[in-house]
Structures are given as structure tokens and as C-alpha cells.
Design goal:
Elements: H1 3-28, H2 32-57, H3 61-91, E1 97-98, E2 101-102
Antiparallel strand pairs: 1-2
Amino acid sequence: MHWNEVVCTVLLALGCVINFSGSYGVLKFPDFYARLHAAGKTDSLAQVLILLGLVFVTPDVLTKIKLMLVAFILLIVAPTATFAITKAAHLDGLRPWTRGGRQ
């Protein structure tokens, strides 16, 4: 196994583990805002790690540039979409969960 395949395997595995931890957070957290936070943060990082892992095994330079461009765009678009969804829920009147129950 060559060094770039090892780096690719590590990044892909790390991306999958982070993605599964975000899925667990979506199931475990009590309200919409916490679930969206878990999904948004971990999903963005996992996607970028997976794309960067693919960069190490792709032989074509143009494909590497495209993968890095997609990763960069995901780093900008995914948090913006999460913010827009959260703001829409807040403006719609969805209140956050509190320890004593809903307010």
C-alpha cells in the first residue's frame, strides 16, 4: 500500500466516523436546534475529509482541483444553509428546548 492510499484510507475512515457521530447526535439531542447543530457541523467536516481523501488517490490534476473546489464550496454553503434553516425556524416561532421542558 502506497503512502497516498494510506492517507486516503485514514481521511475516508475519519470522515465516516465523524458522519456517524453526527447521525448519533441527531438521534440523541432533544430539540430541533441541537439536532441541526449536530448535523450541520459534523456533516460539513465529514464531507470535506472524504473529498480530501479522494484528492490523494486521484491521478488527474484537474480532478484534484475540482475536488478541492467542491470542498471549499461545501465549507461555505453548508453552514450558510444551516443558519438559514435555523433562522427560519426561529422566525416561525419554534422555541428551544429547556431542561424544564418547552417554554
